[in-house]
Specification:
Order of helices and strands: HHHHEEHHHEEHHHEEEEHHHHHHHEEHH
InterPro entries: Anoct_dimer, Anoctamin, Anoctamin_TM
Distance between the termini: 55 Å
Helix content: 55-70%
Pfam families: Anoct_dimer (PF16178), Anoctamin (PF04547)
Organism: Macrostomum lignano
Strand order of the largest sheet: 1-2
GO molecular function, one term: protein dimerization activity
Family: Belongs to the anoctamin family.
Length: 625
């Protein structure tokens, strides 16, 4: 009816004004005022959320989201403490690290090959490794011996958090009488029934209903899949564009002596910032493409429709956000090449990692993407509703003086419509969980930033929901739905990525093997890792970071490769084994809740039996009468 223009909008009204009277006691406040006073205030940031009031006012679906985000934020506390501990450990042991000291005090010992190709130009100079002392210092803060411990902790933390949430979800479902709630009887979407041209008998109800066959839906599903693949192709193009941009900026800055030491850092920062903007553009494009193709696929119920949109957007977001990060973590160090044989992209050299491994570049990239994403999300949450409110009131011609109208529906009509449900909130939380678990050894401070963000996010969303938007239509729910499967998938990927990151990107294993074979104090490690440029490839002898290519087929090379494979496999298997053990040892439903659920089912069956017996007795009396 709304889409046909018969009604302009439809919404349940709020229960009175949101302004809290100064002379009213708490028990006389309406539900909206209670939520405003005890939930939607900045001063309540350290308090638990009033979930029962949220559920009573907005319904179980909204309440489950805020229960999840509150539970997740609480679990971020130990992860933040551990991450800060690893960072502090790096700060405390910085002065004692031999690699840092050798690099910073090497002076003119290690002459490095130019980062640009103009070897005959006066502007393209050779440089010394000691020029990058600050770069090496910061790199050690995030890549030290505590990193392995933290990567293991993060994988176990993700497993335990998901198990804990399953139990909490079961408790809330039992408390809110949602245990036996099923969506089998969910009505068909109006968009589905209005566009169906065929009818068929429902196998469950036996009723004749609008029907769209699977044979007709399959080609449309393929079109949706191709659309998703095309968006992923655009994401790859953005990555190539970012790599080209980084190479050009690095070469240009390296030619300037004043900016030479900061060339890579500035190039990484600017390219990561530009990539973040491209990621945001593709994110919103993906949502509209996913929504349009899913609408065309003709899914019967709203749940089926939402799940398909969620799957499409989630898969693309996972690819879109982590493509450039994965490149930096696993491929960048091996693509630069060597003097005389550099790999190129459209004529520009691939930028190498100054420290041999790309751990610091990964840290820098993760920090920029993660923090910028949170700042953008918070700014959007803060400013977008207010802007929409002004535009909405202007578009409907609603007088400002009627904001405090005596009629509640008139006051609510001036508020912005509640759209898209909790889709963006859940997506933001799930992607944040990815940043906190995936690649977390490179940025152990991510949980701390996530914790601070969520404390602000909860109150910001609460204010928007209570004060700035129309009241959403209450919906029932048994859990957070398909989003939990997304979290489990990310936790599984996190174990694989963290194991691979520690084995192939971090300096942990190379330094460990070096101490076992050559020097327990790590003296000479930097000289050992730097390669000499091949003869006749440069105008002067120089060194470059080529990994351990000059030590190929040596004892060190094979032992390092064996250690990497052993660490990768053992890390994954230990985490997976412990995860299965925790899942087996901790039941998804607490015993008290299970007993309560069984008790309720027993009473329900007993009530039906008693009613059936009572009905038979009345029939018998009527028969003899």
């Amino acid at each position: 009816m709304i889409k046909r223009g018969i009604y302009s909008c439809a919404f349940p009204p709020h229960e009175g004004p949101s302004k809290i009277p100064a002379d009213k006691p708490a028990h006389q406040l309406n539900s909206r005022q209670v939520l405003h006073k005890y939930w939607a205030r900045w001063s309540r940031w350290h308090k638990y959320q009033p979930l029962e009031h949220i559920r009573e006012y907005f319904g179980e679906k909204v309440a489950f989201y805020y229960a999840f985000i509150g539970h997740y934020t609480t679990w971020l506390v130990p992860a933040s403490v551990m991450g800060v501990g690893v960072f502090v450990y790096g700060c405390c042991t910085l002065r004692d690290n031999v690699i840092v000291q050798e690099t910073c005090h090497s002076h003119n010992e290690f002459k490095m090959c130019p980062l640009c190709d103009d070897k005959d130009s006066e502007s393209c100079k050779y440089w010394y490794l000691s020029d990058m002392c600050g770069y090496i210092l910061i790199s050690y803060l995030f890549d030290n011996h505590g990193t392995l411990v933290y990567s293991m902790f993060a994988s176990f933390w993700a497993c335990c958090f998901l198990e804990s949430w399953k139990r909490q979800s079961a408790i809330l479902a039992s408390r809110w009488d949602m245990v036996d709630y099923i969506e089998m009887q969910e009505r068909a979407r109006p968009e589905y029934t209005s566009k169906c041209t065929e009818f068929a008998e429902d196998p469950i109800t036996g009723l004749i209903e609008p029907h769209f066959s699977h044979a007709k839906r399959l080609p449309r599903l393929l079109v949706g899949l191709l659309s998703l693949l095309f968006l992923m192709f655009l994401s790859v193009c953005c990555l190539l564009l970012m790599l080209l941009f980084r190479a050009v900026v690095t070469a240009a800055m390296f030619k300037n002596k004043l900016f030479r030491s900061a060339a890579l850092s500035v190039a990484n920062t600017t390219s990561a910032s530009a990539n973040f903007l491209l990621v945001l553009m593709l994110e919103y494009l993906c949502y509209y493409v996913a929504f349009g193709t899913t609408e065309w696929e003709m899914h019967r119920t709203q749940t089926e429709f939402e799940n398909q949109v969620i799957i499409k957007v989630f898969l693309f977001e996972l690819f879109n956000y982590y493509l450039s990060i994965s490149y930096t973590a696993f491929f960048k160090a091996n693509l630069a090449g060597k003097p005389g044989d550099y790999n190129r992209l459209f004529g520009s050299r691939f930028v190498e990692c100054l420290n041999g491994s790309c751990m610091f570049e990964l840290t820098q990239y993760l920090a920029i993407i993660f923090i910028f994403n949170q700042l953008f999300a918070q700014a959007s949450e803060l400013l977008y509703p207010k802007l929409c409110l002004l535009l909405h009131r202007g578009s409907v011609g609603f007088p400002a003086e009627q904001k405090n109208s005596s009629k509640q529906w008139e006051s609510d009509f001036a508020l912005i419509p509640y759209q898209n449900g909790l889709f963006w909130e859940y997506l933001e939380a799930v992607m944040q969980f990815g940043f906190v678990t995936l690649f977390v050894p490179a940025f152990p401070l991510a949980p701390l930033f996530a914790l601070i963000n969520n404390l602000v996010e909860i109150r910001l969303d609460a204010r928007k929901l209570v004060l700035e938007t129309r009241r959403p239509r209450p919906e029932r729910a048994q859990s957070i739905g398909i989003w939990f499967s997304m979290l489990k998938f990310i936790a599984y990927l996190a174990t694989i990525s963290n194991a691979t990151l520690m084995a192939f990107t971090s300096e942990f294993l190379p330094t460990t093997v070096y101490t076992m074979l050559y020097n327990k104090g790590l003296e000479g490690y930097k000289n050992f890792t730097l390669n000499f440029a091949p003869p006749n490839t440069t105008s002067e002898p120089c060194r470059y970071n080529g990994g351990f290519s000059q030590h190929q087929h040596s004892e060190f090379y094979w032992k390092l490769m064996a250690a990497r494979i052993i660490l990768t496999l053992s890390f994954q298997q230990v985490v997976f084994a412990v995860s299965r053990l925790v899942s087996w040892a901790i039941p998804d439903v607490p015993s008290q809740v299970e007993n309560r659920n069984q008790r309720q089912k027993y009473l329900a069956r007993k009530s039906l039996i008693d009613r059936d017996i009572l009905g038979r007795r009345f029939k018998r009396v009527d028969f003899f009468a």
